[in-house]
C-alpha cells in the first residue's frame, strides 16, 4: 500500500512538474503568447471565458458520447459476427482494414453532402473513428476462446447463442474494455475533426475561429478542455473496467463486490 | 420410453458400431481409432485405460458428440449421437471453470443451459438450485466456498468444483477424462469415495478415462484396455469386487492381481508398438 501511495504521489508530482517547467520555460525564453501561451494564461482564459466556452463544450461532449455509443453497438455487433463466423471473418476483415486506412477527414465532406452540416457529421465521424478498435478487440476475444470451454458448452448441447452469451462475450470483456479506452479518445478526435470542417458549434469550431483571430490562449483553452474531457472519460471507463473485468487480473476488489 | 426403443433396436445405452476416427487429412493423417465396437449398459461404470495416445479421449469425444466418427456409428440411448435427448456431464483433467464466475455460478452453468432446468432457471436460481449446489459442494468438501472465484482456490478444490459442474444437472451420461490426474494421492482417494457414492445414488452411465489402474479397479464395473497405433480395445474385463469399495480393499490379493494383470497388458501393448516402429 505504501509503495502504491508513493507511486501515485510521484506521478502527480511529475505531472505538475511538467506544467511548471512549461510555465518557466515560457518566462525564461520570453516565448510570446501568440506562439505558446503559459499554462497559467490558458487556465485563466478557460476560467474567465468559461461562459462562452461552455455552449461549445456541451455539443462536443454530447456528439462524442452519441457517436461513441453508436460505435459500441455497431462495434460489438460486427465484432461478434466476425469473431464467431469464419465466413464473416474472411469477408469483413479486408473491408475493415481498407476502410480504416482511409483518412477520416476525407469522409466528413461526404457526410455533409448526405446529412448537411452540424450534428450528424460530428456524430458519424466520431462513430467511424471509434468503431475499428472495438470490432478488432471483440473479434479477437471471441476467436481466441479456449477450445476446452467450447467443449464444455457443446457437451451441454448449448446453442450458439447460449455459448456466445455465457462464454464468448464474458471472456471478451477485458478485450472490449481495453478497446473502449482507445475508442473514447478516438471518438473525441472524430467529433473535433468534423466540427472544424463542418459545423458552427463545438470546441473544434471554437478553436478554428479563435485561431483565425490569433486568439491563441483560447485555442489552447479549447485543447485543454478536450484533454480534460478525454481524461475524465478514460478514467470513468478504467474504473468500470476494473469492476467488471477484475477477474482477468485476479483483483480482490472484484471478488468482494 | 427409452427402454422400449432400446429393446426394439436391441441397442445398448451407449454403442459404438465399427467406429474409426482419423484426424487430419492427406499427408498428416493420424488414425487415432481403428475399427472399434463397444457396448455400455445403462447405469454402468466403464474405465478406459491404455498408453498415452491410444485414443481414449477420442472415444470420449465421439460418445459426447464433440466430434463425428470418420466411419461407423455411435448410438446413445438408442439414437445416433447428437440427436439423443440425454443430459451429458463432462469433466476434464483441467478444471476449465469460467474465471469470471464464482464457484456457485460456475456449478450453476448447466442448470442455465440444459432442459428441463433452464425453463425454471429464473424462478429457482436463488432458491432450490442454490440449495442443491450448496449441498453438492458440501458433499465434495467445498462447503462455504460458493462465493470464491477460481483464482482464489487450489487445484484440488477447482477439480472438485469441476466435478460438481459435471454432476449438478443429474446427467444420464457422465464423461470423465482423467479428472483426478492432477491431484495428490490423498485428495484423489477421497474423491474416488465421493465419486463412488455419487454414482451409487444417482446411477449415471459413466465412462472414465484414467492412467491410474488402481483408480480404474476401485471405481469401474468394467475395464477396457486399449493399445495404440492404431488405437483399439485389446481387453475388456469385469471388476467383480463388492461395493462400496474402500482404499483398504486395494491391498487385497485379488485387487492387486487385477491391477497387475492390467499393467502387463498395457506394458505388452506398449512394447509391441515400440517393436513395430
Ligand atoms: N486434434 C488432433 N489432431 C490431430 N491428431 C490428434 C488430435 N487429437 C489427438 N490426435 C492424435 O490421436 C491419437 C489419439 O489421441 P487421444 O487424445 O485420443 O489419446 P489419449 O488416449 O487420450 O492419450 P492421453 O492418455 O495422452 O490423453 C494420438 O496419436 C494423437 O496424436
Ligand atoms: Mg486424453
Question: Can you describe this structure?
Answer:
The complex is a heterodimer of chains A (257) and B (277). Chain A has 257 residues and is an all-alpha fold. Chain A has one domain: MetI-like (MetI-like fold). Chain A has helices at residues 2-28, 39-48, 50-84, 86-101, 108-115, 119-143, 147-155, 160-198, 203-212, 216-245, 252-256. Chain B has a domain at 96-171. Chain B is 40% helix and 22% strand. Chain B is built from nine helices and ten strands. In chain B, helix 3 packs across helix 4, helix 3 (103-113) packs across helix 5 and helix 3 packs parallel to helix 6 (155-167). Classes of the chains: A mainly alpha (257), B alpha/beta (277). Chain A binds chain B through residues 146, 148-149, 151-158, 162, 166-167, 170-171, 173, 245, 247-248, 250, 254-255, and chain B through 61, 64-66, 88-90, 92, 94, 96, 98-102, 109-110, 112-114, 147-149, 151-152, 169, 175. Residues 56-57, 177 of chain B line the site of magnesium ion (MG).
Number of domains of chain A: 1
Q: Could you state the oligomeric state of the chains shown?
A: heterodimer
* SS elements, strand count of chain A: 0
**How are helices and strands ordered from N to C of chain A?**
HHHHHHHHHHH
Structural class designation of chain B = alpha/beta
- Main sheet makeup of chain A: none
Amino acid at each position: 500500500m505504501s509503495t502504491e501511495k508513493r507511486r501515485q504521489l510521484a506521478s502527480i508530482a511529475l505531472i505538475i512538474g511538467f506544467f511548471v517547467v512549461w510555465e518557466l520555460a515560457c518566462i525564461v525564453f520570453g516565448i510570446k503568447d501568440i506562439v505558446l501561451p503559459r499554462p497559467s494564461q490558458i487556465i485563466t482564459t478557460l476560467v474567465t471565458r468559461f461562459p462562452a466556452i461552455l455552449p461549445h463544450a456541451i455539443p462536443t461532449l454530447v456528439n462524442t458520447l452519441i457517436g461513441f455509443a453508436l460505435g459500441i453497438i455497431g462495434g460489438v455487433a460486427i465484432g461478434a459476427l466476425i469473431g464467431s463466423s469464419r465466413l464473416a471473418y474472411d469477408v469483413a476483415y479486408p473491408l475493415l482494414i481498407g476502410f480504416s486506412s482511409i483518412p477520416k477527414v476525407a469522409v466528413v465532406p461526404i457526410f455533409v453532402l448526405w446529412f448537411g452540416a452540424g450534428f450528424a457529421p460530428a456524430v458519424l465521424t466520431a462513430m467511424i473513428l471509434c468503431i475499428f478498435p472495438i470490432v478488432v478487440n471483440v473479434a479477437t476475444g471471441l476467436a481466441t476462446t479456449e477450445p476446452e470451454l467450447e467443449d464444455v458448452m457443446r457437451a451441454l448441447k448449448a446453442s450458439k447463442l447460449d455459448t456466445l452469451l455465457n462464454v464468448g462475450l464474458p471472456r471478451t470483456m477485458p478485450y472490449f474494455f481495453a478497446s473502449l479506452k482507445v475508442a473514447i479518445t478516438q471518438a473525441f478526435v472524430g467529433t473535433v475533426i468534423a466540427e472544424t470542417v463542418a459545423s458552427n458549434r463545438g470546441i473544434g469550431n471554437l478553436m478554428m475561429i479563435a485561431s483565425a483571430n490569433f486568439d491563441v490562449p483560447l485555442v489552447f483553452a479549447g485543447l485543454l478542455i478536450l484533454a480534460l474531457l478525454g481524461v475524465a472519460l478514460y478514467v470513468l471507463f478504467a474504473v468500470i473496467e476494473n469492476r467488471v473485468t477484475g477477474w482477468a487480473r485476479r483483483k480482490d476488489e472484484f471478488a468482494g463486490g | 420410453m427409452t427402454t422400449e426403443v432400446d429393446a426394439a433396436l436391441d441397442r445398448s445405452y451407449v454403442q459404438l458400431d465399427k467406429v474409426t476416427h482419423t484426424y487430419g487429412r492427406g499427408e498428416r493423417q493420424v488414425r487415432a481409432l481403428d475399427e472399434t465396437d463397444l457396448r455400455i449398459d445403462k447405469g454402468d461404470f466403464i474405465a478406459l485405460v491404455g498408453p498415452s495416445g491410444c485414443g481414449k479421449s477420442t472415444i470420449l469425444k465421439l460418445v459426447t458428440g464433440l466430434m463425428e466418427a470418420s466411419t461407423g456409428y455411435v448410438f446413445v440411448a438408442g439414437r445416433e449421437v447428437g440427436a439423443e435427448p440425454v443430459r451429458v456431464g463432462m469433466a476434464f483433467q483441467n478444471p476449465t471453470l469460467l474465471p469470471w464466475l464464482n464457484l456457485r455460478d460456475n456449478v450453476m452453468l448447466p442448470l442455465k443451459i440444459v432442459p428441463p432446468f433452464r425453463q425454471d432457471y429464473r424462478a429457482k436460481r436463488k432458491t432450490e438450485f442454490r440449495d442443491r449446489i450448496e449441498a453438492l459442494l458440501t458433499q465434495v468438501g467445498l462447503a462455504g466456498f460458493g462465493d470464491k472465484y477460481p483464482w482464489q482456490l487450489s487445484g484440488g478444490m477447482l477439480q472438485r468444483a469441476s466435478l460438481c459442474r459435471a454432476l449438478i444437472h443429474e446427467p444420464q451420461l457422465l464423461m470423465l477424462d482423467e479428472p483426478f490426474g492432477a491431484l495428490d494421492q490423498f485428495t484423489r482417494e477421497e474423491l474416488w469415495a465421493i465419486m463412488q457414492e455419487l454414482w451409487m445414488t444417482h446411477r449415471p452411465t459413466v465412462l472414465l478415462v484414467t492412467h491410474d489402474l488402481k483408480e480404474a479397479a476401485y471405481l469401474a464395473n468394467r475395464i477396457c484396455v486399449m493399445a495404440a497405433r492404431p488405437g483399439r480395445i485389446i481387453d475388456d474385463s469385469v471388476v467383480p469386487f463388492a461395493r462400496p469399495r474402500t482404499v483398504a480393499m486395494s491391498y487385497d490379493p485379488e485387487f492387486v492381481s487385477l491391477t497387475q494383470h492390467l499393467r502387463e497388458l498395457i506394458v505388452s501393448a506398449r512394447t509391441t508398438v515400440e517393436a513395430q516402429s
